[in-house]
Batch of 2 targets.
Target 1
Amino acid sequence: MTFLNPKSIALVGASTKTFEEVLAEGKYWGAALRDSLLQSHTEDIPLYFITKHESYTDLPETPDLAIVAVPNIIKEVTKIVNKGTDKIIVINTLDAFTERKLYKIVKNKATILGPNCLGVHCDTYSTFFLGRKTTGDIGLVTQSGGIGEALLENVPNLRTVISVGSAQHYRIEDAIQLLREEPNIKRIALYSESYIPEDEDIITLMPKYNKKSVEAVYDHTGLTLEKNNAINNLDDFIKVLNEKVLVCSNSGGWLCLYAGQNPNQNMTLVDTYATGNPLQRAIEMQSGYTRAVVFFNKYEDFKKEELDDSKLLIPHKIIKSSNCETYI
């Protein structure tokens, strides 16, 4: 069992009040999480809502996953571990002393996602307050739940989000590996304030490195921001995630090179070696794509009317074999 496929879920700190009632009181977590789980979970997953008047110990079964958003975090996590639950999402923001104490309690017994996170949005359940169905093929690991929410609202193909918070117990690397094992995830994205992935296929957003951002990251998570070559702007990150590129070439070798140069791009590669004009194929296939790249081998051998790109209506670039200084 992983954080993405629990067979049963318990929410510790559930509210019996409506979201509107608790919002007025400034204590909305218990109601918001309850409502989100009710809206999103698959019907075959039992849900248990533990209010302040109930005990985790008295549950009729041991849930696979516990989601915790309560002030008395140490007491409740101790009950959860003693019950035998080995996956725990901690929504709370904790001080360093309490966080270290928490890790000692779960050592060799359970794995903690968080603290200071928004949990998970996936095919089986969601702790994000959006009421959005899972679609698409992108998986996101994020140290900021707020960034995760913003991307869910702006990237239709974002299927799964894992909010890792401080990522000291369940690490960013662990979440990335989990997404790699998911059959419905074809691309992986990351918002990180502390970890630079070695794999080039991970689309990465990080704060731009400067004195102010280093201070802001440390204040946010207590972590150290490193110098990086990642995307540093949220709008640019969203554009990359939403991009769908059509790449047509009458040279299969060039397609191989292009794919290697752009490992995190959402692309369709079309080899027209046997059928001829790559521009004509791009014109025929352009619907649904955000831009096109067309590569011509022996460009000079084509007739002038065959090179008319006026019907290729999406943004595009045509590259000739005699002038292929770039693959971008």
Target 2
Amino acid sequence: MASDLEFVEFVVDQLAEDCAVTYKRMFGEFGLYSHGKFFGSICDNRLFFKPTPGSKAFANDAREAPPYPGAKPSILIEDRIEDGEWLSEMVRITAGELPEPKPKRKPKAKAKPKPKAKPKPKPKPEPQR
């Protein structure tokens, strides 16, 4: 089941402005970013955070679960989904421990196609006598 955009916007609206949270649709679900760092996801209308030492300590009562089958376990936030102050601090802690995103490579310029060789002019037939 894919996540609802309304749920994603509800979660993002809970967060403080200094968290600068954005989201991107990913495979029917949503990735969450703070200042360009991927820190969590929303899958099946459930909020997950990347596990870091600080986020595990801060959310000591939260359980870990995979956001989708085959994924690594993440911290699942269930009972504090409406606590904006707590969620904002969780974002700050988690994003603060994650590495800066790698700069995106500029795509290589496509090689200009070689100009097609002009066809050689056909020899004019000699007039018949």
